[in-house]
Amino acid sequence: xxxxxxxxxxxxxxxxxxxxxxxxxxxxxxxxxxxxxxxxxxxxxxxxxxxxxxxxxxxxxxxxxxxxxxxxxxxxxxxxxxxxxxxxxxxxxxxxxxxxxxxxxxxxxxxxxxxxxxxxxxxxxxxxxxxxxxxxxxxxxxxxxxxxxxxxxxxxxxxxxxxxxxxxxxxxxxxxxxxxxxxxxxxxxxxxxxxxxxxxxxxxxxxxxxxxxxxxxxxxxxxxxxxxxxxxxxxxxxxxxxxxxxxxxx
Amino acid sequence: xxxxxxxxxxxxxxxxxxxxxxxxxxxxxxxxxxxxxxxxxxxxxxxxxxxxxxxxxxxxxxxxxxxxxxxxxxxxxxxxxxxxxxxxxxxxxxxxxxxxxxxxxxxxxxxxxxxxxxxxxxxxxxxxxxxxxxxxxxxxxxxxxxxxxxxxxxxxxxxxxxxxxxxxxxxxxxxxxxxxxxxxxxxxxxxxxxxxxxxxxxxxxxxxxxxxxxxxxxxxxxxxxxxxxxxxxxxxxxxxxxxxxxxxxx
DNA sequence: TCCACAATCAATCATAATCGTTCATAAGCA
DNA sequence: TGCTTATGAACGATTATGATTGATTGTGGA
Lengths: 250, 250
Description:
2 copies of one chain form a homodimer.
Chain A: H1 3-17, E1 19-21, H2 22-29, H3 33-45, E2 50-52, E3 55-57, H4 65-73, H5 76-87, E4 95-98, H6 102-105, E5 117-120, H7 123-131, E6 135-138, E7 141-144, E8 149-151, H8 153-159, E9 164-170, E10 173-175, E11 179-182, H9 185-196, E12 198-205, E13 216-219, E14 225-228, H10 233-239, E15 244-246
The structure holds a DNA duplex (30 and 30 nucleotides).
């Protein structure tokens, strides 16, 4: 069996089953463990897969380590639901700002075939957007290791060259008195500016963010339309004058 | 069996089975191994197939896109060697520009603990740099899907805010008359500007780039110091007036 | 929690397969 | 005959492979 054949075989199996085990490959190809190991190393080098203990998985899936992958599974269904609704607010040909974050990330699959121009400050987002074939600009700037978000003066300056039809922000808390908040002032500044540059801004959050006050203020509630899955009565009461879209999670 | 017949036979078999092995061809045609080898070499020359170790495969729709995977493994040892040497040219505390590319990518492991500020326009590089804990700015801009490089006016403008002590460029060809070249004019523009912003520029290339002329010109040879592993005498003769550092691959 | 055991890993080495090159021979052609 | 081209064999060089080793990592029980 040729090296390329094995490589193709491994990738085929991987595509089909999402994961492959080394032992499984040794048996099915007849090659030695060492060879399979080398194959996996090579394929990882070329970004075709990602090695894990005992085998390999498709790449990119858990690229952004626990900091994000943990968060992204929490309320994942809700986030997808929110994202799906949010995507319906985008018109064909719009220019869109997508904030770095796990909720906005879920928007990407729904944006295909809308002929958009997307600007983002999220590293993981630009990769996913490219996979979908969407024209994407990354703001650039200083990268925050844990979240993969770009921030700082570079980012701020780069943003000012753009104007958006729609701006989607991920937020960490919303509160009737304190507005939208997020833990990092640097990221808050980026969100703030992006919103100013957009005709319409939407803040995306699941219900766990209700009445929560994170460290840095982004803006008042009435500066953006909140899209949230469900909120308690008390939270609702405080917010009732503001613009809210409630998405019911099925 | 005539040469043309064998050629046709090989291509037919290849079309049918996607891959052919040399031994297999030796047996089925009765020709010697040398002859089959020559056949494959000829057919590769005329782009009818692509040789791999032990046989040949169909060209183009190569399961492993050569765009990234092949390039990054081709001359890998040389690239690492070149990168190691290049890293010795960086001083503690320098500000560095790292061009997007596979050779510059190999530099990253050697830059640890040098307390640098690195600016890059390469997506894959920013990830690797972050893993090494190096302070990194990404230029941002429009992302080119195949290479992961950011280019365009956004990138150009973002770059202008920086000045570098050292600038490392990956190049696709160098030639005494035509200078440094690369296939993409957009990327050429970025390389060009980065070099202007740096006190010292180094062009990194393995010997396969010698005397090659890629599409877009970056600059003349004397505008950057060339770091290359080995070059033929003829290539060397044409270059001898310029600044070249030759790295011997062990 | 800690420890021990099993599985997996990276690194190394020797071997086998394959490669490019060279040279000599054979075949085709004027 | 003299010339070119195709072929096959032989060689050392390169590359892929498989087995081995000691280190690392995950797992399950005390």
